[in-house]
Every structure is written in structure tokens, then in C-alpha cells.
Design goal:
single chain; mainly alpha; peroxiredoxin activity; EC 1.11.1.28; oxidoreductase
Length: 180
């Protein structure tokens, strides 16, 4: 179970995705924890059983137990926050931004790993989930912590490629004849 298994599963028309999947996981400037935490959090954000299973197993080879749980936590908390903050932003009434959120988010303050790594994972998941407000917030925290734009861009590329991998494989599964 691995990146290689996902690459093999991708159809010929998704050659670019296959090549990009190999590239974003093998030529990273991120630390090993940042890379594989981003990979795992993004896999979970896609909701694809196949992508989650393949990438979680490989991420487990590179992440400590604490980092593995924190990456899952980033995907989980962003599943909630991205919906809430995207919705309040899209309503267009800034009064909602002034109201108490009243949602528990303690993992953001105490993620169990370096704060910058957790923020990077939250940013990548927010890209998949399409929350502009969260993207802006996490990017700002990362930049203030000294993370170069190139590393932030790399996390966004990882999110894009893992999302495309999941979308392609899920579509192929839906197109396959029943029982094949």
C-alpha cells in the first residue's frame, strides 16, 4: 500500500496526476513530518477510502504516532471550521464574524506537534475544502512564523495532486461496471 499503488491505479488519461503524485512526495523541501502530515491530512480531506488507506499506511512509516494523530486532527477540525468560516464569509454580512463562534477548537492551540506543521496541514486541507477565510488565516500564521512562500506553495501542490488523485479514482470506480 503506497503512493506507488495509487500511481498504478490511475488510468492512462491521468498521466499528469500520476507524475505529479510521484513528484510531490519524492522531491519535497518540507521536513519529513511536514510532508507526510500534509499528505495524510489531505488524503483524509478527500474522503476517498482508497486514497486514505494507501497514503495512511505509507505516512505511518514516516510520522510519529503523535504526528499521525495530529494530521488526522487537522483534517477533522478543518472539516468543521472550513464549513463554518466559508459559510459566514459567503453570507456577506460581517456581523457574523463578530459573533462568538461557540465551536470547540482546542486542538489548534495544542495540536501535539510543532504549531507550524499543524498550521501547514490545516492550510492544505482548507485548500481542498475551499475555504478562503481559513486559507488566509493559516497562510498569515505560517508567514509570521517564517515559513517561506515556496513551502506553503508546496503544501498547496500536495493538496491539489492528492485531491485530483482521489477525484480520478472515485470517478473511475463509479464508471466501472457493477461487480467488475
Amino acid at each position: 500500500m503506497s503512493v506507488d499503488a495509487l500511481k498504478e491505479a490511475l488510468p492512462a488519461y491521468a498521466k499528469d496526476i500520476k507524475l505529479n503524485l510521484g513528484s510531490v512526495t519524492s522531491t519535497s523541501q518540507l521536513t519529513e513530518q511536514q510532508l507526510w502530515g500534509t499528505v495524510l491530512a489531505c488524503a483524509m480531506a478527500t474522503k476517498s477510502k482508497q486514497v486514505i488507506a494507501e497514503l495512511a499506511e505509507e505516512a505511518g512509516d514516516y510520522l510519529s504516532a503523535e504526528a499521525f494523530e495530529a494530521a488526522k486532527g487537522a483534517a477533522s477540525i478543518m472539516a468543521m471550521n472550513n464549513v463554518y468560516y466559508r459559510a459566514t464569509h459567503l453570507i456577506g454580512d460581517e456581523t457574523y464574524a463578530q459573533l462568538p463562534v461557540k465551536l470547540r477548537m482546542t486542538i489548534i492551540g495544542k495540536p501535539g506537534v510543532e504549531k507550524v506543521d499543524f498550521e501547514l496541514w490545516c492550510l492544505a486541507v482548507s485548500a481542498i475544502n475551499g475555504c478562503g477565510r481559513c486559507l488566509e488565516s493559516h497562510e498569515k500564521v505560517l508567514r509570521e512564523a517564517g515559513m517561506p512562500r515556496e513551502h506553503i506553495q508546496e503544501a498547496l501542490r500536495i493538496a491539489a495532486v492528492i485531491n485530483a488523485t482521489a477525484a480520478t479514482l472515485e470517478a473511475e470506480a463509479a464508471l466501472a461496471p457493477a461487480g467488475v
